[in-house]
Amino acid sequence: MIFDIKRETMPREELRELQLMRLQAQVDRVYATVPFYKKKFDELGVKPGDIKSLKDVSLLPFTEKQDLRNHYPFGMFAVPKENIVRLHASSGTTGKATVVGYTQRDIDTWAELMARAFMTAGATPKDTVHNAYGYGLFTGGLGAHYGAERLGATVAPVSGGATKRQAMLLRDFAADVICCTPSYALHLYEAALEIGIDIKELPLRIGIFGAEPWTEEMRREIEKKLDIKALDIYGLSEVMGPGVGIECIEAQSGLHMQEDHFLLEIIDPLSGEPLPAGSVGELVITTLTKEGIPLIRYRTRDLTSLNLQPCICGRTTARMSRIMGRSDDMLIIRGVNVFPSQIESILLETQGLTPHYLLIVDRQGSLDTLEVQVEVDEKLFSDEIKNLQRLERQIQKNIKEFLGVSASVKLVEPKGIARSEGKAKRIIDKRNG
Ligand code: DLL
Predict the structure, then answer these.
(1) How close is the Cα of 341 to the center of ligand 1, in Å?
(2) Are residues 269 and 370 in the same domain?
């Protein structure tokens, strides 16, 4: 089912016209109301009137996360503070948080786009939604909450934590849909088993998972263990929050991007040049309708590609491939570029390993080292030491063969790697301090 047939199945030519009209209005507005943009436009010698086609977006300056930090907390808002009804902030681990503000219309648009997202994922107004994204400054909880309400579903605002209790609520409320990070879904599954609840036997049908990178192998694992359909949802607080894109349940093949509200580009992360359709590069997003903090050419650092082919579900929107990783999460080990998701794929292809892993990067003398710690399942754990050692060597060989880097592999006992209630922490890089 489609929530907004008119918008979601628009012929692409019509969509482009709408995008251009909205882009021109947005550019006019930021030039007039955000001193940061006026200065940047003036420095580049570009005027709002220069935007005559969608291609002209490449004349405009980029916006970076650091720009939001430099204008902390409200310096990039385009409306007076009294028109802001909500604040959120990113969970940035380094430096100042990035703060975003929403007008009432922004909140309404977000609810609408999240309602569309729920329906794209196969949810209906009759469903009960167990929302385990964190409520608070993080956009996951409230974003999914308002969307599920707008859809007309019943929401249980469970938030993160108290995992065994969550398992009981999941059973007692007979939820049809769960929203959380993919790593938390597996954690919840294990915690439920410990108190005698097998999620596989509950009515739960759909999982809406995002906020962190994950792989096809991880999807298969979750779908098998929980006996649900697992859909990938994408978003970022600077641009809105969850709901910028989501997979459809019909195809599960790329995330439908809500292009009537966001203009997308794929650029070369090094040169900043736009790349041709279909290439892998950094996703850059211009918000087309946002009032509180409109962003021009926001550099997400997320690496992906876009597919414009029509989808079997009937939507005409561009489909984004699963995020490969963030350009700033890319590990460079002795000159070889490695994404954590590539290691995850190799680990999950191996029988007996679980999706709980940690990558520890260090430097010995002038050489980078990579240690991969991965949990084994109960069955493998009870195996003979020499078999475990053989497996470690096998994984080491696979990583070397497929990714071209030497890693040491350490198998860890079941539950030996810390679980997270939100985004999983998978990399410890000891090289910089
Ligand atoms: O994570 C918003 C969100 C909440 C998305 C709930 C989906 C579900 P931030 O905390 O600002 O916002 O983090 C945004 O998380 O730039 C990506 O690097 C990463 N990310 C988000 N969704 C996905 C996904 C929320 N489906 C950053 N796959 C983004 C891979 C994702 N990475």
Answers:
(1) 15
(2) no
Phi, psi at 377, each rounded to 5°: -85, 170
- Report whether the peptide linkage leading into residue 73 is cis, meaning its omega lies within 30 degrees of zero: yes
Nearest CA to ligand 1 atom 28: 213
Tell me, yes or no, whether 312 and 356 share the same domain.
no
Q: What is the pTM (predicted TM-score) of this model? A: 0.95
Paired sense of beta strands 427-429 and 331-333, if any: unpaired
Do 244 and 336 share a domain, yes or no?
no
Same domain, 17 and 147: yes
Q: pLDDT tens string for the chain (433 positions)?
A: 999 999 999 999 999 999 999 999 999 999 999 999 999 999 999 999 999 999 999 999 999 999 999 999 999 999 999 999 999 998 665 567 899 999 999 999 999 999 999 999 999 999 999 999 999 999 999 999 999 999 999 999 999 999 999 999 999 999 999 999 999 999 999 999 999 999 999 999 999 999 999 999 999 999 999 999 999 999 999 999 999 999 999 999 999 999 999 999 999 999 999 999 899 999 999 999 999 999 999 999 999 999 999 999 999 999 999 999 988 888 889 888 899 999 999 999 999 999 999 999 999 988 899 999 999 999 988 888 999 999 999 999 999 999 999 999 999 999 999 998 889 989 999 987 5
The ligand 1 atom at the shortest distance from the C-alpha of residue 241 is 2
Q: Residues 119, 239: one domain?
A: yes
Distance CA 327, CA 280 (A): 12
The best mutation among 252, 283, 284, 302 to test binding of ligand 1, ranked by most ligand atoms within 8 Å of the C-beta, falls on 302
Q: 7 by DSSP, 3-state: which?
A: helix
Q: Structural domain of residue 422, as residue ranges? A: 331-432
Q: Report the residue count for the chain.
A: 433
